[in-house]
Design a protein that fits this description.
The chain has eight helices and 21 strands. By secondary structure, it is of the alpha+beta class. A hairpin with an 8-residue loop joins strand 18 (308-315) and strand 19 (324-331). Bound molecules: adenosine-5'-triphosphate. This is ABC transporter ATP-binding protein.
Length: 356
């Protein structure tokens, strides 16, 4: 449905590239997310897909047709793309139904009214049909903006930080709701965000951008458990880098046991050379609370999260040895206070190693 190939973009006022060699692909019906820190080029990429910025190099293909390249540009209004903006951009003088019908002017009245009713049902706002935007909550306004974008059955829906003006506690739930609505409409969509929780709740595929370059494209699971760069490992999810030495028998020695390194993944230039000291990515859910373990860690801090507690731990091989920080996500019935110690063991499916 959408292919972005080796895209490079620069602004006239700058010498450097704001995007460089950006490549990713979305299948019909998939929801993609462009995730990255402020200034990495997310909005620029979205605007390029919408047709507002011409690439310096590379191309954008929509539904099998090149719509943007350095020598050809299909105008934005001919791309059949729907947009949901950060501030929702609803027309204040129009009712909910009139806002949704805005893009349906080519249809006759009864067709348009039927489509509006269909979308009102999809976004669960049928009873708000004749209400004006100022009388809606932020979340309801956003659903109207989504319905308006979906109304003309666009090939692609672009959502630019759609949750940033909403209560942070609700964002993850809203992201899941919007995902459900996009899936029910069979839409292909791309959202831009700097919030990984929103990206995980919403996307089938997440593209991580940093400093103008695509770092990694993958499912939320792949980005969390199999990051390919230290940036992605640090930007996505919590975790620590634990010193790990590859011994002569091909096992990784760590302060919390040793492991067969046969299926380990070496990233960012890490070498699988015997005797090498590396960094092992350890997520909080890789550390299991186990009182029968010979490895004991001390609680230095804790965050109660309801069903679980995130423990900040330190562990050392002996009393005078260096302390290694660890995170452990344990079910909250394992209730330990700061200063206490408990047994832990490492339970990992993926050994991801980075250079020291
Ligand atoms: N019209 C412009 N002219 C020149 N430089 C621009 C223009 N728009 C954006 N930039 C620059 O391009 C880079 C990428 O900006 P962009 O808005 O795409 O980033 P972003 O990842 O969306 O950031 P944020 O999350 O803060 O919105 C930034 O360094 C920004 O200053």
């Amino acid at each position: 449905m959408l292919t972005v190939r080796d895209l490079a973009i620069s602004y006239a006022t700058r010498n450097d590239k704001v995007l460089q060699n950006v490549t990713f692909h979305l299948e019909p019906g998939q929801i993609g997310c462009i995730l990255g820190p402020s200034g990495c080029g997310k909005t620029t990429l979205l605007r390029a897909i919408a047709g507002f910025i011409q690439p310096l190099a590379g191309e954008i293909e929509l539904d099998g047709k090149v719509v943007s390249s350095s020598n050809a540009m299909l105008p934005p209004n001919q791309r059949n793309i729907g947009m949901v903006f950060q501030d929702f951009a609803l027309f204040p003088h129009m009712t909910v139904a009139e806002n949704i019908a805005f893009g349906l002017r080519a249809m006759n009245h009864s067709e348009s009214a039927a489509r509006v009713d269909e979308l009102l049902a999809l976004v669960e706002l049928s009873t708000y049909k004749d209400v004006y935007p100022h009388a809606l909550s932020g979340g309801q306004q956003q659903r109207v903006a989504l319905a308006r974008a979906l109304a003309p059955k666009p090939k692609l829906v672009l959502l630019d930080e759609p949750f940033s003006n909403l209560d942070s506690a609700l964002r993850e739930q809203l992201a899941q709701d919007v995902r459900g609505m996009l899936k029910a409409a069979g839409a292909t969509a791309i959202m831009v965000t700097h919030d990984q929780h929103e990206a995980f709740a919403m996307a089938d595929q997440v593209a991580v951008l940093q400093d103008a370059k695509m770092q990694q494209v993958g499912t939320p699971y792949e980005l969390y458990h199999q990051p390919q760069t230290t940036f992605v490992a640090g930007f996505i999810g919590e975790g620590v880098m634990l010193e790990a030495k590859l011994n002569a028998s091909g096992r990784l020695e760590t302060v919390i046991g040793d492991f067969d390194a046969e299926h380990a993944t070496y990233c960012d230039g890490a070498q699988a050379a015997k005797g090498q000291t590396l960094q092992l990515l350890v997520r909080p859910d890789d550390i299991v609370h186990d009182d029968s373990s010979r490895f004991k860690a001390i609680v230095v801090n804790r965050h109660f999260r309801g069903a679980s507690i995130l423990y900040y731990l330190t562990i050392s091989e002996s009393d005078d040895d260096q302390c290694h920080p660890l995170l452990c996500l344990a079910p909250s019935h394992h209730d330990h206070q700061v200063g206490e110690s408990f047994g832990i063991r490492l339970d990992m499916d993926h050994l991801i190693l980075f250079p020291q």
